[in-house]
Amino acid sequence: MSNELLTPAEMGEADRKAIEAGPFDGIKLMRNAGACVAREVLRRYAAAERVHVLCGPGNNGGDGYVVARLLAESGVPVSLWSSGEPRPGSDAALAAGECPLRPMPLAGFLPTTGSIIVDALYGAGLSRAIEGDTVRAIELAITFGLPVVAIDLPSGISGANGRVMGAAFRAELTITFARMKPGHLLMPGREYCGEMVLSDIGISDAVIDELQVCTFRNCPQLWLGEFPVPGVDTHKYRRGHVGVFSGGPASTGAGRLSALAAARSGAGAVTVLSPGNALAVNAMHLTSIMLRKADDGTEVEAFIGDRRPSAFVLGPGFGVGDKVREFALAVLAVRAGVEGLVLDADGITSFREEPSALFTAAAAPDAPALVLTPHDGEFARLFPDLAADEGLSKLERARQAAARSHGVVVAKGADTVIAAPDGRAAINANGTPWLATAGSGDVLAGLIAGLLAQGMPAFGAACAAVWIHAEAGARFGPGLIAEDLPLALAPVLRELTYSTES
Ligand SMILES: NC(=O)C1=CN([C@@H]2O[C@H](COP(=O)(O)OP(=O)(O)OC[C@H]3O[C@@H](n4cnc5c(N)ncnc54)[C@H](O)[C@@H]3O)[C@@H](O)[C@H]2O)[C@@H](O)CC1
Ligand SMILES: Nc1ncnc2c1ncn2[C@@H]1O[C@H](COP(=O)(O)OP(=O)(O)O)[C@@H](O)[C@H]1O
Ligand SMILES: [K+]
Asked: Which residues does K(+) bind (predicted)?
């Protein structure tokens, strides 16, 4: 796999292990890294009148000295600026020694229009907020409107959590090595990185495997092996049956959006479970999706006994209150046949006073899998202490929430994080702001339930649904409303299904 995400500490460990294992020692890895960057600069910025290479005191600066040398050897006018001498004997000092250009102090940095900047000040080793000459250089890049190519990370962005430490370059292009870091995908880091290029510098997959990383970039590679594809001899009852709880007569649309998405995902049957007083309005809007009255726990249990549903969605448009808790706990108490419960929106908010009741039910042996899909506001209602802890990244928050709740947590937003109770986590990055429209989360909840109903394990189902939902939204683009999404899922599902056959 190449979709593992390495923290800066893990990346340092990978560098060390790779150097130990050979064939490349530190300076050779650095030359490889610099060569990748120089190649991209030559290919993309052939018209640049001058390249300003800004080098820091660590190995990120070392990469910069390699780039400066290679560009100069290719005949590109290069100006070299340094914020501090490399430590004597370090790989960066060797790289600086091999570079024929003498660096000027960063304090005197003055770019010219028509030039570009290669940012080799700080990468994985950023340890505190940047200040002084680096901040000035960032301001000058903005004033002159110069394209910035960042090596590994834009200086000022934390590789661990994507935060801006003091200030940061806004790169047009960021070239990183071996594996991406969480800070490349978590906001606002992702925005500061611009286009991302992942380069192979000779660190083998075996070295990465040794680290036993459990954080991933969310992409089909992560879950395609579990993706449900119907066999030729299947029938609708084998393709899973999703129950979606509807809200009252004035708020039935959200549940129907979930139901439609569950059906599009390939579930063989979908039933909307409606309060008696909303049956008529639901009936007016449903065709292939079934409808059944469910006003209390007994009716829910009767539905489970009669129709053997394999997954549920509870929350969209449902209203906050006791009934959510009753229904959620009834579903989580089933011991066979129900694969999972997706708790969204009001379903999450209803447990704000007593989250432990939910978490205990989810922890019981053989309980259906719980998938929670909070946006930031809902997350803070269920996990107020984690939300308030500014020391935690979104990744760490979601991971701790999953461990505490015994459920898969889908912490939504531009950088949706999916975390499992066993510690695995994935960060999603193929979304689009066009998804920020009412009802789009209801579609996501239905899609997760549809995949769960077809037997996909909960973490994979949640990751797959988030990616497919984002992909469908991004392809649709401007004009998207939630009603468009269930149908927009179809081409994405089609491509994924065909790709499992090749
Ligand atoms: N041999 C290797 O280990 C390789 C390292 N690589 C490069 O090495 C980088 C990591 O190198 P390092 O661990 O040396 O880290 P960096 O070069 O990112 O930064 C560390 C240096 O910057 C200083 N520093 C950190 N934050 C600062 C701040 N806010 N203000 C002022 N100074 C600050 C530190 O004291 C240290 O001197 C990667 O990002 C990558 O570019 C690549 O060349 C691949 C091979
Ligand atoms: N800026 C964004 N970029 C990508 N995806 C986004 C963005 N804003 C929202 N989304 C996605 O849109 C969906 C919105 O869900 P939610 O907030 O629950 O809305 P609703 O309750 O109206 O359905 C989530 O899947 C979320 O990740
Ligand atoms: K950098």
From this structure: 60, 119, 155
